[in-house]
Amino acid sequence: MRQLKRELRMAEWRRKSQALLLIAPLAVFVLVIFLVPIGTLLQRAVANPEVANALPNTVAALHDWSRQDLPGQPAYDALALDLQQSRETGAALIGNLARRLNNEISGYRSLVTKTARAMPLEGDARTALIALDERWGKVEYWQAIAKHASPHTASYLLASLDRQQDNFGNIIPADPDSAIYLDIFGRTLWIGLVSTLITLLIAFPLAYWASTLSARGANLVMICVLIPFWTSVLVRIAAWNVLLQQSGLINSGLQALGLIDQPLLLLFHRPGIYISMVHIMLPFMILPLYSVMKSIPPTYQRAAISLGSHPFAAFWKVYVPQTYAGVAAGALLVFITTIGYYITPALLGGPNDQMVSYYIAYFTNTVVNWGMACALGALLLAATLVLYAVYQRITRPGTQATAR
């Protein structure tokens, strides 16, 4: 008996080991390609090493500073020593420090580079620094150093939520000129929601019609649905750019039919974004709906009609509730994809139509502010995870929502 149990345990262990070996390449691929970049993104959203790396002695000297008045002589001595050592170590430390502090106070870049080039100073560090540039005699420049002394900061995430820290570390509303990101997130979610609803309204009847066809007819419809996948998204957007112009095919056709007198403003406006997004995302909505609708027995609806129900009531109360899983899957897929769009709003939208992805690319490629780009990306990721959690809650078997 013991021998049999031992052999069963060994057989179970071998089976599990083989299963783990089979999924190990996929697990490594997901870890390297997916999880590691996301972890790096989240880390960069709170990383703030520039000041701590370039000015370690200054940070230590400002540790107990009240931030009310100018710091004492030790802080000036430490700043002069740090800038001299950072310059001797390499230009990268000075460049990163200048760029980080310039995000806090415009013009700080020139101050740091000018002071680093003047190293070493002669005589008293305080007198020499203020004589070199009078800004070293202003308390707000020292407050900026003390504010970013920690190697980790919440300033990027706060800025993404239109908040900021004052010079004493208190969280306050951001300046009206820079408080734009909540509006951008709201715009992004709204564009994604409207695009999802329009896609659902178009895809639902088309998927229902395809599910009622014969196998040959349904296959032909699915081929037509999948044809756009054979063309690059960029090519399709470029085609819409041509079609939506004021002298494009759509406006010309509507004017020729006498439906409009003046060309519609479709390109570089919100309607153009909706048209292109819905066109691109239709297959992602149709396929989940079709797969669910194909599995619904038609006898349920016919039984309701035979029991005296109106055909529309039978469709709405018997058939539609059985498609909720496909509706939820398709809507989630389309919504999550659309809120991350960059190319479509950039090529077809106007300045007030750009979404979060546009500003992530702006901070990454133009301003080279990786902290802000990663903070915006982290919030977009958080919104996606929340949506997925809601979807899991709604579609969980046995829940009240599913029962209804």
Automatic annotation (TrEMBL):
<dbReference type="InterPro" id="IPR000515">
    <property type="entry name" value="MetI-like"/>
</dbReference>
<comment type="similarity">
    <text>Belongs to the binding-protein-dependent transport system permease family. CysTW subfamily.</text>
</comment>
<feature type="transmembrane region" description="Helical">
    <location>
        <begin position="189"/>
        <end position="208"/>
    </location>
</feature>
<keyword id="KW-1133">Transmembrane helix</keyword>
<keyword id="KW-0472">Membrane</keyword>
<keyword id="KW-0813">Transport</keyword>
<feature type="transmembrane region" description="Helical">
    <location>
        <begin position="368"/>
        <end position="391"/>
    </location>
</feature>
<dbReference type="GO" id="GO:0005886">
    <property type="term" value="C:plasma membrane"/>
</dbReference>
<feature type="transmembrane region" description="Helical">
    <location>
        <begin position="220"/>
        <end position="239"/>
    </location>
</feature>
<protein>
    <submittedName>
        <fullName>Polyamine ABC transporter substrate-binding protein</fullName>
    </submittedName>
</protein>
<keyword id="KW-0812">Transmembrane</keyword>
<dbReference type="InterPro" id="IPR035906">
    <property type="entry name" value="MetI-like_sf"/>
</dbReference>
<dbReference type="Pfam" id="PF00528">
    <property type="entry name" value="BPD_transp_1"/>
</dbReference>
<feature type="transmembrane region" description="Helical">
    <location>
        <begin position="20"/>
        <end position="42"/>
    </location>
</feature>
<feature type="transmembrane region" description="Helical">
    <location>
        <begin position="324"/>
        <end position="348"/>
    </location>
</feature>
<keyword id="KW-1003">Cell membrane</keyword>
<feature type="transmembrane region" description="Helical">
    <location>
        <begin position="273"/>
        <end position="292"/>
    </location>
</feature>
<feature type="domain" description="ABC transmembrane type-1">
    <location>
        <begin position="185"/>
        <end position="391"/>
    </location>
</feature>
<dbReference type="GO" id="GO:0055085">
    <property type="term" value="P:transmembrane transport"/>
</dbReference>
